[in-house]
Specification:
The protein is of the alpha/beta class. Helix content is 44%, strand content 15%. It has 14 helices and twelve strands. It has a six-stranded parallel sheet, with helices on both faces. Strands 3-4-5-6 form a four-stranded parallel sheet. Strand 3 (102-105), helix 4 (108-117) and strand 4 form a beta-alpha-beta unit. It is globular.
Length: 369
Amino acid sequence: MLHLQHGGIEKQTITLANELSRDYEVEIISTYSMNNPPAYEISDRVKVKYLMDTHPNRKEIAQAIKEKNIFAFIKQLIRAIKILYLKTSLMQNEIKKLDCDFVLSTRVEFAEMLSKYAPKGVVTLTQEHLHNDSKKYVARCRKAFRNLDYLVVLCRGSRANFSKWLEDNKKIKIVEIPNILENIPQDNAPLKGKNLISVGRLHPVKNFGGLLQVFDLVLKQMPDARLTIVGGGDELGNLENIIEQLNLKDKVTITGMVSKEEVAKHMLNGDIYVMTSLTECFPMVLLEASSVGLPLISYDVPVGPEVIIENGKNGFLIPFENKEQMADIIVKVLSDDKLKKDLANISKENASLYLPQKVMPLWKEIFDN
């Protein structure tokens, strides 16, 4: 791992480690401690080893540039070079001395190291959490995965893509295993309001600016609708500017980074979960929204949402960037209580397909062979 703080990859890897530790000895090796405890609960059965008791210093560099402090900038630049060197060398050394039966990478850069440095006899796996079909990324994956035993992908679309991209790799076996939903809450969202919810880090790829534009169109038809964006990140200032430009200040709430318990509370206050991401691989937030019985509406971007959303059954897939159609569908669902409840019921039912008892046997097929 790179770190154990907030993030979809981090949460899912910790969940997997916790489940595996019921039957196997498990250790997480994390590059950075980030000077903070893990963002998600780790079982006492799982060992955790940090290679660096620090964090990347991008914010410090940005602050030095903002303040035009040349001395601080040079100091932070030297520190960044040292951190980058240690980040690579410490993980390489750790991989070279691995004493285990299986090792799983969560990032392409670590997969590259496994291909070069993993000891003989160790079964090597990498899990691809992202959807990126750029030529540069595909070429990097081809090189990184050249000596690995398994590539674990999250959905059929990713499997089809990597089967094509890695057709010359005769060593690697591509296995499809979805993310794990830890549990299904007993409580369901009451669905008695007109509240839209979306969850994620405030990053350009999540396209929350596009969501605000969609919501502005919704308000023109349904003035009493509300939107809650749950998350924090570098895009906050840009989103606040859009909110001001569109005069949405009294209609939109951005919570900032909150605990998973707070995320669950916000989900339960929602009536529709809306996703406007530019790209997704296997969006866990859709499963979490399903687990509390929320209808799902998302842009139909490649690979991800189509796996979870059955169009017209538990939600709707909207052609990418068709803001008008997305707004119309949102208004349609919020205006029709029967439709809203029918979508919610199937949404809740489908969530059970991703519980540990459904997913973990797929992992055990690898580890128990």
